[in-house]
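hey so u asked for the seq, here:
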Amino acid sequence: NRSARRMFAGELADFFHAPMSVVATDDMEHPFRQTQALKQLHEGQVHSFECQVRARDGRLFWVVGNAVASATGVGPREYTFALLDIDRRRQAEERARQAQASVQHIIESAPLAIAVCDADDLAIAIINQAGASAAGQDAMQLLGVPLPEVFPEWGVLGMERDARAALRQRSLSMHEYRFIRHGQQLTWELRFMPLEQGPRGQPQLLVLATDVTDQRAAQAAQLEAAIA
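ran it, structure tokens below
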């Protein structure tokens, strides 16, 4: 039909009596080359596939399709192919995959503790090595665990409340939490940044955490020196 002629950049005469593999890629496992699979179909059965095809002008694109077997009553069996061009969808998926890989690389290489949490339950979806080291646990073991449970000291100080407020307001917020760990007074600065569409394609919360204990002590010393 007209859509197929436009899809493959040709007219009926360009394809008449040619095998379907004329628009297949060089992949020997390509669905258009698997004639045996079609021969095993009963009348009315559908064979579904997703593959890359090549138009007459050399353009490569992805399609999803069905092949339906039908008996004409006379002559050999026929197969009807229905194809949908999904190249834009595949390109969008690839861009999303590359973006996620880039985000993952940035998160892993950053010196500060970073975690990406699901918006509904604050369960950790991504955490870098710095964040896992701050929690004193292995990064893989923290996946799926709510952030307040990973850092109970912060949770007691209202971290979940502040995170929820940032999600509701859809704005960046910054908070400091002072607590005692192993007998040492620590100060951590946390920034909450809501993500309308996180790496997983759903609302998430980006959490940036920095140990500012030494920095705050230096600032306090400077202030005391200035007062003196």
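Residues 87-109 form the longest helix (23 residues). The beta strands are 46-54, 60-70, 78-85, 113-118, 124-127, 173-181, 184-195, 204-211.
lmk if thats what u needed
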